């Protein structure tokens, strides 16, 4: 019914309803390789629900989500992750009681089965990879810090790092700069630009300035439907968007 | 109307609000601006009594409410629209508003509320959780208004709201101020919204007030500077 | 060496705890208790298996199982079935209408050994069954529940219901199970009289060694990446799931492991007490086991053992002198632990235990330096301060 | 079935149907209080059965007083006893919430342990006050016996009485929870305690009265059960698992679900009992419930709401 | 689990309370006369410890220690209270008569707490630590099964008071209640003859005693009486819903309902029967699980006109019983009622006394040997006359009592003295 495409992610006819209320309504949406795509829209527009649907947290009522031509709607969450989809949550979701190093280690894509986890050993390869990622997310000096003690921005980075260590083909970030200072935002924008090389990135954001800094492509979501898609300028000048979202 | 002196608030061992003093007269709208993590929400929570103050006093219309529970503060005239709205998702819109009528002893929802927010009348039998963000924000304000407050607290009312609705909310706030003798305190990061509603602006940073201006004296560049360090 | 020390013994604090526990149950108690009290203690220590298992599934796994009695019971029944078959030799049961089958079957007009009893005439099969049957049962329950994301309160209630089902079944199918009386009158193990004092003493030591072994095994599991993931699942289940782990499998495994540990306790119980009855399968023992773990400290493997000993010891002592007071005390204890000492004895040990550890180190140094060990004083002072 | 006339079979069918309905009313009455306490407040009240026992003992005590001091009042005391049972159990619940439960709202599993402790204390209190023996109040004559619409059909009057009482209590609960402002407060508080306080609801008071109401209804159930069974110190523990099953099976937060669940469990159990032994009927019923719950963990009638 | 399922499980009956005064001197004399003369003389003084106690029991020149082991707490406390009260009454009376072999009896009481392992644990303590010469105790089959290996291993002596399912005969136990055939067969014969009963509906709680009893009843009905069992039903312990069973009974229209429902279930059972309009005017009901103790909970008005088969009823009108009831009430209160098991428990210490005096020693082996000779008898038993059979059970009579509104029964039938037969041929 849904054909294969060249896109990294192809969402077609996606619908989910809660108690008769359609949170996402017949959504069609494509994401190219190496594309950094930002979804904006007011709260309740269904942005987070779309991420939930892609990563399997919520089951779709109908429609298809294809990742590298593999149907995701039938997979369980961990299988979707193993297929190469990483997802960062809105509030930083890290293990507060573990150190930064342990946080990354736990996320290292080895020993994912029960017995693998029992037998897992911290080898040099693992350590090297951890250091590499930590450098990328600007936390190399904090490896032995308990994650709960990090600043808000650093926690956001750590969670991104926990995804990077798994080297996903698709990275989904829900409001990655919420609560960050201006300087941290800039660093994050840099980080995102860097990591979008070689993989597709899907970001949910409000901050229009930040969106302008990073987005290759923008989609405006409103009441579960797409209002407009295109680059930043197109979207900002779209009469629909102005009417419904931005206001005159 | 609202007097706060030497207010200190702590989470566990660490003090987040370091001895704030301010007072807001009747019919004034005060905006408290600051970046994330600077103590805005903590301040609001301690004003409504969700977080206890470790030191200092808060009084409304001359009544000391420092040691009161939240609901008693509401009885004394404080109303609270929290960050993220926090409407009751599985109650209907009508029921959501009615939860605020506990204190005012009203029997039915006054017409002026629906006049202010026509969309809520339209959706009065829908579940609150199925409203859009902007609608939820209106609902949260309506819920606060039916308590007949003397002081209305709004914590980041524009967060996550589409720009078009932000303007509506500003209009509503100004409307409310005209209709009632009410003190409004709003916390914000969006300067344009602040400028549309506030009579006075205070900037908070690291749990302390660092700057204060009447709206007419505001140097927007300076404020923007504070907000983006 | 450092691996063994860090992983299995749990570092310095854990090592000291383990040594003190071993010294207590292997040396001090046998020295000061007569064989009757020692046997009693052995019985309590079989409950400690269940308490330890609850530390794994509840304290670390974050899932409260009110069904540990099921597994304790299954282990106990498996052992009892073997012993009963041995006790039901045709010579011993000559007066029955069908000699050679257990007496209660004969009373219920059953004339042939049911098929599922037959393999239990083999000792090695029985040992395997004790370990495998409860584990498999836990696997079934665990897969059905955790794969469907049933957790928290619902898991607790459903396991409780399963234990009720099993109890009703055992009581109702008395021709196959011995009914409410349980399986009684067990006398020999491979021809060896298990009712003798010497046998009971040996079982006591076997029990202690197994218990310590189980604690060391549990520590190994908890200090591996698996253990860290378990805590991670407890605190942020979604993050773990979205790091590519099949969370359900981890819960199922720890539930199975907990079941197996409880079952070992059940089997040792049968050996030491000489019978098994459905009263160990139901709700009350299952909840009591939770309380043992809670009193000991739900995150402490060793604490669970002390919690178990403390409560049972209290029960025995108080029920002899103030039977009414005891129930009030027990109820009060439940409430107090939940409200005031959520970390149980282990919490107290954490707050004040370093005094003991320091002293232990001091004594150890003294011994090492002087090489004239005054073992007695070491043993005596430690246990006394242990629980204070 | 040979040897029976159709009218005989019809009569049995009618009576069997009534047996199911009667079991339904018993289960529902037990579960209503818990549906409020567990379903709405999230407290796993293992002492719920003991609150039923409080109601039963209250009835017994009143029957004793009436019989001894006002024998003429015997035909009427029972109605009065139901009200007193509600009040006594409610007051005890009020204090239990104040002393114990309110500290544990954040830790639902710990409420299980703490209330289990409470149940032990209550059981021992019953034993100290009323003795270990099972007791049973003297019931007014009009409650005993059977109603005979035809020659062959006997419908027990006590069963009808319990059914009627259940209907009244259920309607009362529905009115309270969904039509009164008090119910609105309860529902708001259970959804978001902090926010409810911040819109002016005295949440502590709501909690306390909600818990007391749940316990009070348990007390009514206890009073009603004296018409069909006796009361001992451990009577309460007999009911607790069944009660939880009814509530969980129906979907904890749904009162309608509780009713439907009580109905289906009662009918299943009562029909199976007709064809097999009581023990096996119970095993099959519970087993079916567990199986269904595995496929619908949120219960039969829980609705899907966005987060 | 002890609380939930086991619950009322096992309490077939219950018992009570007792008294303070001695048995009347006349009946004492009667007891003494009943004993063989040689032993009578031997009773007095002058036995050195070394002679009467060669196995290290707790016997001194002045006293001998025995144990009482019943549940004082837990669900079984309801039933077992009466038994231990009766045992204490008997011991008190024996002491006031001068004790046994010149020694006063001292009691060590332990609480079985309704928990079978605890029973095993406490019995071991009594035998090993306290070295008691005899133990009076246990109630449920499960608790007896739990302590049995301990008694056999430590060679102790247990007097067990409850009517029970039979199928057991241990060297170390004296059974003072009826075994199943004694209780069941004559009652069935009576109802078949008296009520012309042909069809029976059997209903019981689901555990070993009712099931074994029903098995024996069914064989007797089918093979001996030529009747028919039209239904057999077991309800879980603690069950309180009997609607469906009552409907089945209505459908089958049995001549007799034969019941062995125990504990709290019993109360629900009879209340619901009455509420369903099944009363003694329409239906004959015979139960083997209701004594005066249960009636307290059920209420006499719910039972009126139904029958119980027991070996003892409190209302029995003979001098022994009148004295016993009086003594019991004086010691334990006027509100006490006395059921079958309470009376059986009362026999324990007296039977032990007789056997010890006959053996001239407290040694368990000698006491057992004396007991097995088959000539130990009590003419002072409240139930009438009993004699100890070599198979460790008692010869006694079965009685059918018809319940009155006041909670007492009128004995309507008394059998001949029945021989105990714990392993009844043809009934297994």
Written overview of the protein:
The complex is a heteropentamer of chains A (248), B (229), C (388), D (307) and E (428). Chain A is α/β, with parallel strands linked by helices. Chain A is built from ten helices and ten strands. Chain A has a domain at 95-167. Chain B contains ten helices and ten strands. Chain B has helices at 40-48, 70-75, 93-99, 101-104, 111-116, 118-122, 133-145, 163-179, 191-197, 220-227, and strands spanning 2-11, 14-24, 29-33, 55-60, 63-64, 78-81, 151-155, 183-188, 200-205, 208-214. Chain B is an alpha/beta fold and 229 residues long. Chain D is 73% helix and 1% strand. Chain D has helices spanning 6-40, 48-69, 74-99, 108-130, 157-179, 181-191, 193-198, 203-225, 235-250, 255-275, 278-295; strands at 146-147, 155-156. Chain D has a two-stranded antiparallel sheet with strand order 1-2. In chain D, strand 1 (146-147) and strand 2 (155-156) form a beta hairpin. The N and C termini of chain D lie far apart (54 Å). The mean pLDDT of chain D is 87. By secondary structure, chain E is of the alpha/beta class. Chain E has three domains: 3-42, no CATH class; 49-178 and 317-392, Rossmann fold (3-Layer(aba) Sandwich), CATH 3.40.50; 180-310 and 400-418, Rossmann fold (3-Layer(aba) Sandwich), CATH 3.40.50. In chain E, helix 5 runs parallel beside helix 15 (340-359), helix 11 (263-275) packs across helix 12 and helix 15 (340-359) crosses helix 16. The radius of gyration of chain E is 21 Å and the shape is elongated. The model of chain E is unreliable at 1-44 (pLDDT under 50). Chains C and E meet through helix 3, helix 5, helix 7, helix 13 and helix 14 of C and helix 1, helix 6, helix 7 and helix 9 of E.
Task: List its traits.
B: alpha/beta, six-stranded mixed sheet, 10 helices, 27% strand, D: 307 residues, mainly alpha, globular
CA-CA gap between termini of chain A: 41 Å
How far is the N terminus from the C terminus of chain D? 54 Å
**Tally of helical segments of chain D:** 11
Shape of chain A: globular
Uncertain regions of chain A: pLDDT < 50 for 5+ in a row? none
What is the radius of gyration of chain D computed over CA atoms, rounded to a whole number of angstroms? 20 Å
Task: Provide a concise account of the structure shown.
The complex is a heteropentamer of chains A (248), B (229), C (388), D (307) and E (428). Chain A is an alpha/beta fold and 248 residues long. Helix content of chain A is 36%, strand content 24%.
Topology:
The complex is a heteropentamer of chains A (248), B (229), C (388), D (307) and E (428).
Chain A: E1 9-18, E2 21-31, E3 36-40, H1 47-54, E4 62-67, E5 70-71, H2 77-83, E6 85-88, H3 100-107, H4 114-119, H5 124-136, H6 152-164, E7 170-174, H7 182-195, E8 200-204, H8 208-214, E9 217-222, E10 225-230, H9 232-237, H10 239-246
Parallel strand pairs in A: 3-8, 3-9, 6-7, 7-8
Antiparallel strand pairs in A: 1-2, 1-4, 4-5, 9-10
Chain B: E1 2-11, E2 14-24, E3 29-33, H1 40-48, E4 55-60, E5 63-64, H2 70-75, E6 78-81, H3 93-99, H4 101-104, H5 111-116, H6 118-122, H7 133-145, E7 151-155, H8 163-179, E8 183-188, H9 191-197, E9 200-205, E10 208-214, H10 220-227
Parallel strand pairs in B: 3-8, 3-9, 6-7, 7-8
Antiparallel strand pairs in B: 1-2, 1-4, 4-5, 9-10
Helix pairs in contact in B: 3-7, 8-9
Chain E: H1 2-6, H2 25-34, H3 37-42, H4 49-52, E1 63-70, H5 77-96, E2 104-111, H6 116-129, E3 135-137, H7 141-154, E4 158-160, E5 173-175, H8 180-194, E6 199-205, H9 208-225, E7 228-235, H10 243-252, E8 256-260, H11 263-275, E9 284-287, H12 292-298, H13 300-303, E10 307-310, H14 319-332, H15 340-359, H16 364-371, E11 377-378, E12 386-388, E13 394-403, E14 409-418
Helix pairs in contact in E: 5-15, 6-7, 8-9, 11-12, 15-16
